[in-house]
Amino acid sequence: MNTALPPTGAPVPPVAHAASTAAVAAPVAPATDPQPAPRPAAHHLYNRLCAALSKASLIGAVLMLLAIILCVQYQVIGRYVFNDTPTWAEGLALQLVLYVTALGVAVGVRDAGHIGLESLVALLPDAARLKIEILIHALVALFGGIMSWSGWTWAVMKWTDIKPMLGVPVGLDYLALVVAGALIVMFSIEHILALIAGEDVLPAWH
Q: What is the pLDDT of residues 109-159, one digit of tens each?
């Protein structure tokens, strides 16, 4: 069936013109990943305890980072100004780096500061997404428990060895793993409890 086309230069009917104008002017919604509905913040006793530990860890890490800067500056001044290198400054800086890293890792677990791929999880239904998130936090808790247990084992093995620059046991290096692992377990359990209760864990600095 042939449809007659209007001749060139013929006026466009008002109805067709309005429809084409509306189609062009209609906004196009940007493509975004589906986001789960926001959950209320958790405020129970265990949540407040973990928030206090996380904030204390964060403050401690910042203070130790400042102490590292002072140690390095003191070592540089002693070496190049007074020609007397303080050997303990380097050892103390290296010791503090371990604890800054350990506390930062633990706080990152609670405050979701680590890199994660959530695109696939966000596409799942709510029930499946909840199970996957609980499984992820359970695996993180398992990792923290293994870290704490391994750190304690090495701390006991190396406690009789003494660092020559500081005069402290070498086992102190591995106590950082014990502290970080214990905090990771606690923070992961906090997230699991919040997911089961339909709540959200707010960052410690909130």
A: 888 765 566 666 667 677 777 888 889 899 999 999 999 999 999 999 999
Helix, strand, coil percentages (3-state) for the chain, rounded to 5, are: 65, 0, 35
Output 201 or 17, whichever has higher pLDDT. Answer: 201
Give me the mean pLDDT over the 79-108 stretch.
88
- Dihedral (CA of 73, 76, 79, 82) sign: negative
Q: Which of 141, 69, 81, 143 lies closest to 110 in space, CA to CA?
A: 141
For residue 101, give its domain range.
40-196
DSSP class of residue 114 equals S
Residue 18 zone, left/alpha/beta (φ > 0; ψ -120 to 50; rest): alpha
Number of domains in the chain: 1
Whole-number pLDDT of residue 200 = 78
pTM, two decimals, is 0.74
**C-beta atoms surrounding 67 within 10 Å:** 14
Residue 22 lies in a domain: no
How far apart, in whole angstroms, are the C-alpha atoms of residue 106 and residue 183? 6
One-letter amino acid for residue 98 of the chain: L
